[in-house]
Structure of OmpH family outer membrane protein:
Amino acid sequence: MNKVKIFVATALLFVTAQLSTQAQTAAPKIGYTNVDYVLSLMPESKQIESDLKTYSTQLETSLQTKVKEFETKGAEYQKGASAMTDVIRKDKEKELMNMRSSIEEFQRNAEVSLQKKQQALLEPAYKKMQKAIDDVAKSNGYTYVFNSDAGAGTAAILLHAPEDGNISDLVLKQMGITPPAKGAPAPAVQAPAASNTSPGKAIAPATGKKNK
């Protein structure tokens, strides 16, 4: 009987050890990166910011031209309204209302257009970053990689993590970019942005897997 008990106890210890080993083996390795930090050090970043600023300036110039024309006609109407016939006054008022509606519509369309331009400019950079994240995750055994920043409309989901889980510099090196030296002043983390458009639409930095 004692031999049976010893055998059973030994068997249970063996099974428990196996399960413990399997659990440790199956435990996911989690890393994180700062998407805005990485993007700010990519050579594409300055060009994206410049192109976006140029595009935004063009839209702003067109808008100001429309507004100035509206203000000029409005001033003319105010100055001569008392001398106008009812037909002319109503026609001028209708013209001003149409101009104001046109300005409001242009503003709405400009915002949408600027967001689309931003997405188009950022998408290649985010795809490049995603590939680097995937490569780093695969070569270093990371099961999941989270985005730790909240810039450019992205959601910060990481509140605390050990520094050795930060793969940002590894991602930069994977793309051939030399990270700033430890202790050196960090670059201003400012990803090119025109709106609250989330980079996650072009890249999924919260996982170690490519977008489907």
Remarks:
- Confidence is low (pLDDT under 50) at residues 1-17, 194-212.
- The chain has one domain: 28-181+193-201.
- The chain is about 60% helix and 5% strand.
